[in-house]
Design a protein that fits this description.
The complex is a heterotrimer of chains A (626), B (251) and C (296). With 251 residues, chain B is an alpha/beta fold. Chain B has a single domain, classed as P-loop containing nucleotide triphosphate hydrolases (Rossmann fold, 3-Layer(aba) Sandwich). Chain B has 11 helices and 10 strands. In chain B, a hairpin with a 2-residue loop joins strand 1 and strand 2. The N terminus and C terminus of chain B are likely disordered. Chain C is an all-alpha fold and 296 residues long. Chain C has one domain: ABC transporter involved in vitamin B12 uptake, BtuC (Orthogonal Bundle), CATH 1.10.3470. Chain C has a two-stranded antiparallel ribbon with strand order 1-2. Chain C starts with a helix and ends in an 18-residue tail after the last helix. The chains are: A alpha/beta (626), B alpha/beta (251), C mainly alpha (296). Chains in contact: A-B, A-C, B-C. Chains B and C meet through helix 2 and helix 3 of B and helix 6 and helix 7 of C.
Chain lengths: 626, 251, 296
Amino acid sequence: MYFATDLLAAWGLNLEYGVAGVLNFGYIACVAVGAYAYGVLTLPSPAVNGNYQHYVLGLHLEPAAAFVIVIVVGCVFGGLVGLVGRHRLRPDYQAIMLLVVAAVALAVSEADTALVNGNPGLTLLPNPLGTTGPTAGNGWVYVGILLAICFAGYFVLRRFSDGPLGRSLRAVRDDSDAALAIGKDVVGLRMLAQVVGGGFGALAGGLLAAFIGAWAPSAWSFSETLSLLTAVIVGGVASNYGVVAGVILVPVVLQQLSQFVPGLNTRPQLAADIGWMVTSALTIFFIWFRPTGIVPDRRPRYGVGRHRRVWSYAPEPANMVVDVPVHPPVSRATSPMNADSGVSQASLDAGAILTATSFALPRRPGVPAPTPSFAGPLLEVSDVVVRFGGVRAVDGVSLQVPAGAVTGLIGPNGAGKSTLVNALTGFLRPESGRISFNGQEISDQPAHRRARAGLVRSFQLSRQFSRLSVIENLLVGRQSHPAESALGIALGLRYWKQAEVENVDRAWELLRAFDLHAKANMTASSLSGGERRMVELMRALMTEPKMLVLDEPLAGLSPAWARRFEEALMQLRSSGIGFFLIEHELGIIERQCQEVVMMARGRVLSVGTMEELRMQPEVQAAYVMG
Amino acid sequence: MSWAEGQPLARNLRCEDVVAGYGDVPILKGITVTAHAGRVLAVVGPNGAGKSTLLRALLGLLQVRHGRIFLGERDITNEPLEELSRAGVGYVPQIDDVFDSLRVSENLSMGGFVLSRAKQQERLAVVLDVFPALSKLIRRYAGSLSGGERKMVAIARVLMPDPDVLLLDEPTAGLSVELTQMVLETQVRLLATFGKAVLLVEQKAEAALKVADDAAVLVDGQVVLTGSGPEILKNRHVAEIFLGSNIGMNR
Amino acid sequence: MSIFVSAVGFGVASGAVIALASLGFTLQFGLTNTLNIAYGSFITLAAFVGYGFVQFGLSPWTTMAIVAAIMGVLSVAYYGGFIRSLIRRSIGFGPLAIATAAALIFIEYTIVLVAGTTTRSYGLTSGTTYHLWDFVWTSTQVAIIVLAAALVTMFQLGLRTTRLGRALRATAANRTLARACGIRVERVSVGAWMISGLLCGVAGVALAMTTQAFTYNLGLTFLIVIIAAAVVGGIGEPLGAVTGGLIIGLVTQVSAAYFNPAYSDVAAFVLLIAALLLRPTGLFGGQARRSNVATA
């Protein structure tokens, strides 16, 4: 009985905290909202009972109908609480906020006697099976129904916590900035988790109130949230099966069963109190020694075992190459640089790890290579200003980046290069100026919208979703996956399986091309710095970008990895993607970029080939000699 | 300066074959340099050459994997920053180089935190003697100062405990050309004339090399050139290093 | 008018207690950047330990001194043996906050185990009533207001004059630069937690002296009130915590006088929500919005 309701609530909380990373200290308020909603929906009007207790509504609905409304109310409440996320507060402030929201709800329910009868709470709630209060006769029937609800609830839960949607939620949890950069709507996804979590919590509360026949403020103190959190942490963070184990151990054994252990004469509650101490000690123990819990969140393994059948996996790389229209690199026969790049290309090819024949940017069938749909430059920036306090870090920058080429951005430390990247990709709001991409004004769009439009960035310190596997880090890059749509959630696997199969195939092709397929099922946190950089690049490619903004991709790479990265870039040059390459390692700029933008002190100083720039005295003064 | 006279020459800072880095990639691949007492050692190099990494390794902020660092005869490899400061290593960071929320006077007294009260007064008088302009700013909050004034406070702060070695991380970053010259030619030079060993990490190579007694050019975590400042300034290869690819220059 | 004046009088008295507690909280937060949810239960614990001494026959003021010392030691042990180890494991913000929440429950049920769930009271007589201007205060309230004022003044003076105080300011202002000045920031953090424990002990006993009754589970509600004070004043700012404490004390008491007294805490909570949404940096500044610059 308690197992079933606690399980539903803990699953909901696990979706919020374990999967989506929202630390909701006020989760118990969702449970309480469900319980009160059940109460005021099923109770008759207060006057019928001679105003024995006071409450609003009193609709005297059928319990079954009431439960439907309870779930809806829980979802709405969860969503309203989730609105807090729109403010993008620091995570600690957000946790405080959620805690306070629950505290306000609790205080209001205690103090306002007219709302839900104040401190004494609601009693005489109708039993869904017709009699009042739990009786030996129908108690087991009720438990049976509850277990059935849990079973059904699991299949609903899976639609959110597993599959591509669960993967995206986990990505948001592991690194929200990196998730934004590949087009995930971080705020929306978190809110979705809170809506669903709220629904589960409310259902659990409603069922509990219906079984007990009463609900009062004393039933939902902060410690109840902690009890559920402990179930999640002990059982297994983000693991639905783990939570089952956690719920059996923590709320059921330690809290409910311990109440039946006979206490001393003077201390009837002794065992229950000790149960609470053990609960909190267990939380700390697991956070300290085994943060993944008893049953860790198992990530699906691709290409082996069960998934080998489910997700196609072609072992022959030669078959996987999909023809892509090849745009020959812009010829610069008149430039002396051409000879240089020829030399360097040859030397690079000698040590090539990627072979030209096996490497081609895999695309989904039927999706053409990105060709700019209008004639002008792909990215056009005019007069962008970013100010930090009194300092104009970017001071009126205008520049253009074309498609199908590698454009360089160089400049001394503090020139404003990274600030400009942040402004272009929506991670910083410029004070003024216009940014248009692919012919559309994007200045006011949030970061994830820009990424969806095809403007995707990488980070100076490569970021990955550390608790996902390497291949999942790629798979998550797929834009507007049908599994993340409302239809996908409603129809499930059969609706999005084809898309996912293609997604997995593309990921395998990329992994093979980058020679990292052997590590596909390892967790991303186990990779070396160079491998991480490659995974980041592959993930960006999975989004099928029109333009990649690479923020110092060679920073911290060993020479061997830097060479590998440059080879990859060279191969990708012909794919039609526009590259905007920010680097201080001028060798790669010289070899790969037709056009180079030079910034200093927040302004564009000069634009031209590296060769041309090198000759300009003002460039030398600003960049070379300070 | 009267207070510097008769004092024993301060100790050197010696770096021997230092290897350090982040994760599995070494950024510094065996750096050997010495900052001599009474001289300015300029460490220059293109972006990403490992200049700031070297400073972090020297300051105990980054684990040194191999090699040793000596202050005089004392091995200070991997000692934590606060102990280095007590041992006589002064550090002026590039940004956040003053306590913004404290007054200039408080910044100075924080600099002399380890000193006794009497000694602190004594040193304060000396430092104000060196930087007379500070007297006018003493009640101001450091966060409200201009770039040049700020750097002066930072350098005055680091002088308070009378350290032997000074590590300056791009002291001219964000300063105008005139201020850059002023800071390097008066303030930084001044430190060396007091007998301090000054290790100056600079992005602005030319300006730094002009004031440096010794210089080391860092490329890709290695010292590729050493010599006196003016010598290196004249060296044709330096231009190449900074101007980027060797391919372009060797034609 | 007289309702208002007496509410203001009560507000100052309760604000004094909140200010002390909030000062302790903001120290922990400002120096070690830890959201220590268990701080609420430390307040409760202080009240209950004080209860033991009062039952034993000690005067409340002696009790306060002893409890402050005990809480100082406990706070240092809690930081050194628990918080610091968790921070060093870099387990992330969420698990750390959950661990401190678990510590709150653990301490609460330790109290239950020893003292039970019954409501306790020091059972002090309210003492002489003083009329100052239009305010009416009991002698206990006056003494606590004076004590709080004295402690805050001492704290502020100490920040400027003592070695630990100066080290605290430097460390809070710029940790790396403080280290470059030879300040042993790890010891300073321990010192901050000790002072925080002392203040928490004083505040816990003072709270028990001024309220009629207390139970084992008052911690979380009081914690939110404390956080409200700290955030309204600007978290990490000692003077802000004190000002915020007074504001919260006044707002809760005045709203209790005019509206439903049961809503007095809610007024503080709402103030906190408003502060977080509208001005997360507080009255005295600071950084509250998530920094969103993706690179170093």
